[in-house]
Each structure stands twice: as structure tokens, then as C-alpha cells.
Amino acid sequence: MTITLAIHGGCGVLPRAQMTPELEREFRQSLRASLEAGWKILNAKGSALDAVEAAVVVMEESWVFNAGHGAVFNAGEGHELDAAIMDGETLAAGALCAARHTRNPIKVARAVMEKSDCLLFAGEGADAFAQANGFELVPQSYFSTDWRRKTLTEMRALMAAGEAGKRASEAQKHGTVGAVALDAKGNLAAATSTGGFTNKPVGRVGDSPIIGAGTYADNATCAVSATGRGEYFIRKVLAYDIAARMKYRGESLDAACDALIHKELMETTWRGGAGLVAVDRAGTVVMPYNTEGMYRGMVSASTPLQVAIYDN
Ligand code: ASP
């Protein structure tokens, strides 16, 4: 067993031709900072839960990822944030959806898990829970960036021309951040946080806060955090299906993830971008995706910290 942390910043990567050296540096630095924050905890024998939360907070604070500050705009020209965290030891979980003022949704998801006897808070109730538990609330403008505003305008123009399906890039469409970890006690955890997809209808909730869809952890099998069009992940109960394949069919983590990302999802009418990071109870990491790339990284007791964006 090897203590391990793996993260993703979404499979909605910029097309290689649009990636400038400055932006690439920014993405890589943010991924690195996220891994370092989680690894500091894991390496000091801290818990997988603390590690995934810390790693996700760094990406929520970074403007380059679609979570927290830098989240995409919805159709109401605002932001609604979804997040979930799950403890593989106890199967306890906490989640928020359509939060509008919670600065760090993943911290609040953790509090939902530990301080309430509920699992998922939505909208105004999510922000009220955050405030009642001492978390920072921010105006909507805190999440907004010029980059995402420009993307909303571009996406609307493509939609008006009936060309969004063909011409919108994965980066214009969506993104998410997530982390999975195995700690020294053999406990697994997963965390995911997202702004959803650009121009999503107000009130739309994706897979990230739905336990078993975009986020899942069970010490018996694996921890999973997914990225891609949430509606299909919810239908496929994607993250849980990976765990179930391992549990009931004895599939390896790699085989189970490969089946979902490269076969099951491809057999739906949808052919959109999808990816995930997952770790099993031995510390094996897989990071499959079907797009041009996925912002991602990992570090373990036996593998030095590494980050990547495109195939390599
Ligand atoms: N899964 C996210 C959602 O559907 C989006 C993404 O990961 O790109 O809300």
C-alpha cells in the first residue's frame, strides 16, 4: 500500500493551439500548489479527507479552474456552485449544490458531512448553512473573471448560430476540480467542486455533488472524482459503477474506469468530453479521459510529484 494523492482540474482543457506559455505556467503552478497542499498533510500521516479537501481548496481559489473563483457563468449571468466530499472509511458524505455565495464549497461540504445529519444542501439553504457554520460568504462578483465572461459571450454566439455542438471547445463548455487520496491508515477519500457548464440554466445541478455519480469513495474498492457532462454521469451512476465493478466482478480499477470512460459513455447518444481520477486501496492511480487532455497530477510515497495537461 502506497499513500497517494491524485487531482484533476477538469477535462475541459484549452485546445493546444490556444494554450500560451503564460497560461500553461499558471495551470501547472496551480496543479502543483494543490498537490503540495494535500501532500503536506498525507505525508505527515494526516487523513485522506483532510488531503483532498486541502487540494481542492487551492484549485477553488485559483482563477484558471472552473470551481470557486473563476467558475463559469450560467444563463442568468451568475454562478452556481456544486461540491461534494466522501469518506471511504465510513461512507459518510457531504455536499452542496447551486450555492451562490459560498467562497469554498468543498469546506462547507465537509461541514455538512460532519456537523449536520443531512447530506446535501441546495441553493439558499446551502449558503445559509455555510454562514451559520462560520464559513466565508462572498458576493457573486468574487467568482467572476473576464476570461469566463468572454467565454459566455462566445458560447452564446455559437449557440445562436446553431454551431455550439460542432465548434465549442471543451474549454468553452465546462470544467471541474477534484481530488482522491489514500492515507497511511488505508482510508480513501474523494472530493469534487465545480461551476458546471457555461450558460447552464439557472438551478441546474450536475454530477459533482451527487454521491455515486461524480464523487464516490469506499475503502473496500476505490475513490473517484469525475469531470465531464454531469447529466450522463448521473444516468450511468458513474463513480459508483466503477466501485461496483471492482466489488462484484473483481475488476481492476484500471479496467473498471476504462470501461466507463472509453466504452459505456461512448455507447450513449452523447459523445462529449469525460475524464476522472481514481485511486484504489493499494494506491494505484488511474486518470483516464477521452478529450485532448485533462489538467491533472499525482504524488505518492513512490512517485515524485508530477503534473500534466495533454497526452504524454
Ligand atoms: N461535471 C461537471 C458538471 O456537469 C462539469 C465538468 O466536469 O466539466 O457540472
Low-pLDDT sequence parts? none
Which shape, going by the Cα principal axes? Answer: globular
- Characterize the biggest β-sheet: 8 strands, mixed
Amino-to-carboxy terminus distance: 26 Å
Order of helices and strands: EHHEEHEHHHHEEEEHHHEEEE
Portion of residues within helices: 25-40%
3D structure, described in words:
By secondary structure, the protein is of the alpha+beta class. 36% of the residues lie in helices and 21% in strands. The strands form two sheets. An eight-stranded mixed beta sheet has the order 4-3-2-6-5-1-11-12. A four-stranded antiparallel beta sheet has the order 7-8-9-10. Helix 1 packs antiparallel against helix 2, helix 2 (48-61) packs antiparallel against helix 3 (105-115) and helix 9 (238-249) crosses helix 10 (253-264). The chain is globular. The two termini are 26 Å apart. Aspartic acid binds at residues 10, 12, 174-176, 194, 196-197, 206-208, 214, 227-230.
What characteristics describe this protein?
single chain; 312 residues; alpha+beta; 4-stranded antiparallel beta sheet; 12 strands; 21% strand; globular; binds aspartic acid
Summarize the topology.
Blueprint: E1 4-8, H1 21-43, H2 48-61, E2 81-87, E3 93-99, H3 105-115, E4 120-122, H4 123-132, H5 146-160, H6 164-167, H7 170-173, E5 177-182, E6 188-194, E7 215-217, E8 222-228, H8 230-236, H9 238-249, H10 253-264, E9 274-280, E10 285-286, E11 293-300, E12 306-310
Parallel strand pairs: 3-4
Antiparallel strand pairs: 1-5, 1-11, 2-3, 2-6, 5-6, 7-8, 8-9, 9-10, 11-12
Bound molecules: aspartic acid.
